[in-house]
Amino acid sequence: MSKTTTRTRTHSPAQPRWERIDQHRVRLPRQGGMRTDGLVFADAKLMTQLEGDQALTQVANVAHLPGIVGPSIAMPDMHWGYGFPIGGVAAFAGEDGVISPGGVGYDINCGVRLLVTPLTVDEVRPRMTELVEELFTTIPSGVGSHRSDLRLSKDQLDAVLSQGARWAVHAGLGAERDLGAIEAGGCLPDADPQAVSQRAKERGRNQLGTVGSGNHFVEVGWVAERDDEAAADALGLTAGRVTVFIHSGSRGLGHQVCDDHLDVMVAAAGRYGIALPDKQLCCAPLGSPEADAYWSAMNAAANFAFANRQVMTHYARAAFGRIFGSETASGIDLLYDVAHNIAKLEEHTVDGKRRQVVVHRKGATRAFPPGHPELHPRYRDLGQPVLIPGDMGRCSYVLLGTRQAFDETFGSCCHGAGRQMSRRAAKRAARTRNVANELAAQGVVVRAASRATVAEEMPEAYKDVRDVVNVVDGAGIGRKVAMLKPVGVVKG
Amino acid sequence: MGYTYLPHTADLRALLDAADGDGLYQTAVDLVRETVVGESPVAAREERRWTPIGDDAEERFFRFVRELVFLYDVDGFLPAWVRRGESTVIAGECFAAMRHTSERQIKAVTRHGYRFSTDGRWRAELIFDL
Question: Model ipTM?
Answer without folding.
Answer: 0.90
